[in-house]
């Protein structure tokens, strides 16, 4: 079992900061700077083009995919890393749709991350006017799973509220009517135990810059269930997903299994940072992490609710229905979050009124929760958010 | 004018190596390691999520795009960086096709990089059975530009032979019949002067890890001509191409102009390396670079042809029809290239029989050409390639 008081020392966090935003961008692991420097100086600098073989760059997307696979219940050889999450959503959804050519409806919910819905919109618009993206409220998803549905495309953990779907139940229901599933694990991988095989998920995608701590703009990953791996047709049929990329054939032949979900040249420097981040994850027991995360978030909710009647819990109260974040609603949430950040408690704000706080046991302990609650109480009880400097909006929030 | 004897000192090349493979992966600029380290340690490490604003990460794709734009004749505000070249090809081709909804044929040539053809295949396969990818020989392209053609999609400089298309003439011909053009500048950007505005190109894409020296897996770029910028519909409609990404609206609204060609979260660490690489390019006069490149490649051809009758020039003899690489055909080209690499002359091999050598005046001078010719002559005249260790093929070549 992981000792979560020891893992904190593996991260380079600024002194005095309570960083509750690892659900948006994970902090820098201490080993990453050296690892990246070696990739740049010793590998790229010294091996040049030879790095693709000698430093194993070309093998990284699959090797790193396997390491992520362990965290999400995927068998080795069924996850590959690359591109961005939006691209991977597009790729998974297109492959799923091609496996259900007689159906035209993609079902999603309004709690999905907007980019997933946008990518679906772009894809369906290109496929033709008979395709439809049907977006319902999260609580209405089950009622809308009918035999019209080609693909059920959901983000497991809601990016605003932390509300978690029941992946196994919804997937089973989708399969009953002959639909396939695409699960976005952006707020699940490294946050909660995921069992893709156990849940019979068909496709899954996720990112590595949040809970996995691989750095800003770190690449995404994609999973295709073993039974679909040789059937899924890649719409983004790039050369590195070809059966023989370096034969430079004129026509596309899909590579074996998950390899076909590779597309262009992998981002070697970002992959190096991902490798360093996964060194920590390789040691983590996800059940222990989940237990620690629930302890932290339960204490946080109790503390905030006791001290701040103006904040309304936006997350499910039952921890079993929550990911690893806690959100509160407050009309002046943007300003309140700025006031908190100015006092060293970093969460973030999501329109229109959500204050988000991520709980990441690898580097957040109970003393951080205590301190965060004290500062939130001070900001709320003394209306410290009610200052013009906190109300001016930055470009990126 | 750039002093190309001085620019060499800006690169960190292994002692004694003649690196003629900058057309595949550019070498490490000396300033890059520190730049990347600062992005990792001071920006990500200290600013955490705040880096998106404070370190200007979010603005980098457009800012770096403008700097690339200067090298390819694009006005400011019309180039953006992100994803991989394969993804950008897909994006440009899809946008061009949507602007010619009554036509179904994409014309390309067998000199195009295979991934461009593969991506077109994936896209057209999804759009429907009435779409056709028509691939002809490079010399036959002009004769096939008819009013059936929706989009002419070409790589300006052939990755194997270095043969260069006449972008302005082919674009003009395409426009005469109402077709649009997508130009891949993978072997043009930083290799030869490119004038996208002067050539009236409609769309262009390219990569930054070859001549631009941004590192393994560095991101790609895309250009949309000003007159199309507000009309082009992004099929890869990701959140960062949305008009208001942080409003988290449920439906997609395309951002202004080139901004809509952004998709997912940008690879911040790779962008940092690209920034360091472009610091060098910001000072380069492309006409002077072109003149220097021709001097080098002419001397190389003369030297090799005089000493190695077994090597047949695969590149156009007229330097005006050549990019910044020279290729020779040789049946045992793979083994010969391994023998050269073992002796410190690094070019590369492209199936079935092409030995490629890139000429990059930023860090390659006439003394490198002389030395390369001597070593090639030794390998060829003494049949040094005829050894088992040079014939065993590596996974990536």
Automatic annotation (TrEMBL), chains A, B:
<feature type="binding site">
    <location>
        <position position="155"/>
    </location>
    <ligand>
        <name>pyridoxal 5'-phosphate</name>
    </ligand>
</feature>
<feature type="binding site">
    <location>
        <position position="239"/>
    </location>
    <ligand>
        <name>pyridoxal 5'-phosphate</name>
    </ligand>
</feature>
<keyword id="KW-0663">Pyridoxal phosphate</keyword>
<comment type="pathway">
    <text>Cofactor biosynthesis; NAD(+) biosynthesis; quinolinate from L-kynurenine: step 2/3.</text>
</comment>
<feature type="binding site">
    <location>
        <position position="85"/>
    </location>
    <ligand>
        <name>pyridoxal 5'-phosphate</name>
    </ligand>
</feature>
<dbReference type="GO" id="GO:0009435">
    <property type="term" value="P:NAD+ biosynthetic process"/>
</dbReference>
<feature type="binding site">
    <location>
        <position position="184"/>
    </location>
    <ligand>
        <name>pyridoxal 5'-phosphate</name>
    </ligand>
</feature>
<dbReference type="InterPro" id="IPR015421">
    <property type="entry name" value="PyrdxlP-dep_Trfase_major"/>
</dbReference>
<comment type="function">
    <text>Catalyzes the cleavage of L-kynurenine (L-Kyn) and L-3-hydroxykynurenine (L-3OHKyn) into anthranilic acid (AA) and 3-hydroxyanthranilic acid (3-OHAA), respectively.</text>
</comment>
<feature type="binding site">
    <location>
        <begin position="113"/>
        <end position="116"/>
    </location>
    <ligand>
        <name>pyridoxal 5'-phosphate</name>
    </ligand>
</feature>
<feature type="binding site">
    <location>
        <position position="187"/>
    </location>
    <ligand>
        <name>pyridoxal 5'-phosphate</name>
    </ligand>
</feature>
<feature type="binding site">
    <location>
        <position position="86"/>
    </location>
    <ligand>
        <name>pyridoxal 5'-phosphate</name>
    </ligand>
</feature>
<keyword id="KW-0378">Hydrolase</keyword>
<feature type="binding site">
    <location>
        <position position="209"/>
    </location>
    <ligand>
        <name>pyridoxal 5'-phosphate</name>
    </ligand>
</feature>
<feature type="binding site">
    <location>
        <position position="265"/>
    </location>
    <ligand>
        <name>pyridoxal 5'-phosphate</name>
    </ligand>
</feature>
<dbReference type="GO" id="GO:0097053">
    <property type="term" value="P:L-kynurenine catabolic process"/>
</dbReference>
<dbReference type="InterPro" id="IPR015422">
    <property type="entry name" value="PyrdxlP-dep_Trfase_small"/>
</dbReference>
<comment type="subunit">
    <text>Homodimer.</text>
</comment>
<dbReference type="GO" id="GO:0030429">
    <property type="term" value="F:kynureninase activity"/>
</dbReference>
<dbReference type="GO" id="GO:0019441">
    <property type="term" value="P:L-tryptophan catabolic process to kynurenine"/>
</dbReference>
<comment type="similarity">
    <text>Belongs to the kynureninase family.</text>
</comment>
<dbReference type="GO" id="GO:0030170">
    <property type="term" value="F:pyridoxal phosphate binding"/>
</dbReference>
<dbReference type="GO" id="GO:0005737">
    <property type="term" value="C:cytoplasm"/>
</dbReference>
<dbReference type="GO" id="GO:0019805">
    <property type="term" value="P:quinolinate biosynthetic process"/>
</dbReference>
<keyword id="KW-0662">Pyridine nucleotide biosynthesis</keyword>
<feature type="modified residue" description="N6-(pyridoxal phosphate)lysine">
    <location>
        <position position="210"/>
    </location>
</feature>
<dbReference type="InterPro" id="IPR015424">
    <property type="entry name" value="PyrdxlP-dep_Trfase"/>
</dbReference>
<comment type="pathway">
    <text>Amino-acid degradation; L-kynurenine degradation; L-alanine and anthranilate from L-kynurenine: step 1/1.</text>
</comment>
<dbReference type="GO" id="GO:0043420">
    <property type="term" value="P:anthranilate metabolic process"/>
</dbReference>
<protein>
    <recommendedName>
        <fullName>Kynureninase</fullName>
        <ecNumber>3.7.1.3</ecNumber>
    </recommendedName>
</protein>
<dbReference type="Pfam" id="PF22580">
    <property type="entry name" value="KYNU_C"/>
</dbReference>
<dbReference type="InterPro" id="IPR010111">
    <property type="entry name" value="Kynureninase"/>
</dbReference>
């Amino acid at each position: 079992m992981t000792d979560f008081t020891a893992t904190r020392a593996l991260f380079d966090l600024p002194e005095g900061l309570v960083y509750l935003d690892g659900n948006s961008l994970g902090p820098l692991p201490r080993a990453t700077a050296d690892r990246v420097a070696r990739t740049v100086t010793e590998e790229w600098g010294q091996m040049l083009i030879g790095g693709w073989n000698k430093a194993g760059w070309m093998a990284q997307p699959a090797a790193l995919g396997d390491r992520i696979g362990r965290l999400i219940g995927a068998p080795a050889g069924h996850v590959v890393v690359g591109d961005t999450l939006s691209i991977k959503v597009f790729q998974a959804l297109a492959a799923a749709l091609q496996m259900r050519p007689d159906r035209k409806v993609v079902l999603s919910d309004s709690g999905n991350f907007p980019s997933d819905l946008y990518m679906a919109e772009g894809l369906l618009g290109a496929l033709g006017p008979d395709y439809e993206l049907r977006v319902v409220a999260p609580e209405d998803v089950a009622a809308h799973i009918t035999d019209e549905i080609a693909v059920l495309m959901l983000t497991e953990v809601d990016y605003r509220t932390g509300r978690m779907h029941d992946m196994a139940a919804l997937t089973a229901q989708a399969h009953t009517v002959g639909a396939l599933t695409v699960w976005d694990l952006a707020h699940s991988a490294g946050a909660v135990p995921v069992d893709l095989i156990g849940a019979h998920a068909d496709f899954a995608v996720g990112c590595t810059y949040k809970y996995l701590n691989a750095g800003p703009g770190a690449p995404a990953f994609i999973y295709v269930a073993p039974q679909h791996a040789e059937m899924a047709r890649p719409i983004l049929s790039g050369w590195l997903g070809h059966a023989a990329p370096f034969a430079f054939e004129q026509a596309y032949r899909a590579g074996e299994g998950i390899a076909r979900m590779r597309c262009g040249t992998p981002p070697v420097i970002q992959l190096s940072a991902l490798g360093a981040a996964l060194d920590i994850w390789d040691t983590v027991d996800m059940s222990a992490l989940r237990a620690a995360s629930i302890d932290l978030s339960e204490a946080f909710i109790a503390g905030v609710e006791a001290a701040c009647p103006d904040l309304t819990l936006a997350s499910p109260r039952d921890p079993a229905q929550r990911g690893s974040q806690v959100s509160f609603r407050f009309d002046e949430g943007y300003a309140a979050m700025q006031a908190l950040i100015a006092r060293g408690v970093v969460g973030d704000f999501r329109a229109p009124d959500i204050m988000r706080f991520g709980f990441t046991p690898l580097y957040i302990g109970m003393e951080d929760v205590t301190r965060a609650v004290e500062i939130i109480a001070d900001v709320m009880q003394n209306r410290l958010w009610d200052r013009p400097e906190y109300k001016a909006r930055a470009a990126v929030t």
